[in-house]
Amino acid sequence: MYELYIKRQINDYYFCSFGLNFYKLLLINIPDSMITYSEQTRILVAVDCIIFGFDGEQLKILLIKRGFEPAKDQWSLMGGFVEANENLYGAAERILYQLTGLKDLYLEQLKAYGSPERDPIARTISVAYFALIDINKYKTQISDRYHAEWFLINDAPSLIFDHDIMVEEAKKRIRYKAALHPILFELLPKKFTIPQLQNLYEQVYNTKIDNRNFIRKVNSTDLLIKLTEKDKSNSKRGAFYYTLDKNKYKAKFQSFLNFIPNPEHLISM
Fold first, then answer.
1. If both were cysteines, with which of 62, 82, 197, 267 could 45 make a disulfide (CB 3.0 to 4.6 Å apart)?
2. Are 45 and 124 in contact (CB under 8 A)?
3. DSSP E strand stretches across 114-231
């Protein structure tokens, strides 16, 4: 009976023996880099997606219940592992689509989370992304397969691992960027009312904004186009619809600072 076994590996050589006969020495060209890599700790890479949505009245976050151990049946962000043939952004898009049915969203990378104890099963680094959506626009896209559920942003349950930290840091990033760029308009329909816009900013910044002062600031930016159509769902008089003038925005992007109460505190944090 012939038995093949490896007795010893030294650098670039494998010593092989067939049965009782010591065969020959095989020289195998193994790059030094491969030897170096083989000595390193294997670490898993995952992505987690934080999905914020606005339904015209309330700011919300989309969560699912984890389907496996550890922390099975506990609330979680949408997450999964990066596959060998995809980049980080591609993994985020794939996982988001698989778990929710959502695609073609505004996705931005937040940061990486690499605490050694963040996952009790294996050493895992997670790269977090956040997405902003108009809930009414995408509600027919959301899949029921994993029972994704919307929660009011201030009433969301505690999440697994370090997901609560991810959510809080995503909020801070959005507050900062919203003072400089029109990312919150991703949460609004193409046409919207001033009360809707004010309500959204109040919820994102968790503060009350004086109505007359907000309207004055909106008008001073000259970044919105007033439409002739009105929303009369809340009153007979109605509220005019507006849309963002993207051409003017590109030339006057700092005007978004006017929307924010005490923006100097936000920028310096």
1. 82
2. yes
3. 124-134, 149-152, 192-193, 224-231
Give the mean model confidence (pLDDT) for residues 192-210. Answer: 90
CA atoms of 223 and 9, how far apart (whole Å) = 69
Residue closest to 196 by CA, chosen among 244, 158, 155, 228: 244
Q: Which of 151 and 146 is assigned the larger pLDDT?
A: 151
Please, what are the domains in the chain? 4-38 (no CATH), 44-178 (3.90.79.10), 183-268 (1.10.10.10)
The Cα 13–Cα 223 span in angstroms is: 70
Q: Distance (Å, rounded) from C-alpha 127 to C-alpha 118?
A: 13
Q: Residue 15, CB half-sphere, CA atoms under 13 Å: how many?
A: 7
d(CA 64, CA 62): 7
Over residues 211-220, the pLDDT tens digits come to 888 888 888 8
Name the more confident of 23 and 172.
172
Using a 10 angstrom Cβ sphere, with 0-12 exposed, 13-18 middle and 19 or more buried, the burial of residue 180 is: middle
User: Which residue do the tokens 């109040």 mark?
Assistant: 202
> CA-CA distance, 227 to 191, in Å (whole number)?
8
The C-alpha atoms of residue 146 and residue 158 are separated, in whole angstroms, by: 18
Distance separating alpha carbons of residues 143 and 75, to the nearest angstrom: 17
Whole-angstrom CA distances from 149 to 62, 99, 204 are: 6, 11, 20
Range among 66-70, 142-146, 166-170 rated most confident: 166-170
- Model confidence at 19, pLDDT cuts 50, 70, 90, reads very low
Q: How long, in residues, is the chain?
A: 269
Alpha carbons 102 and 125: distance in angstroms, whole number: 24
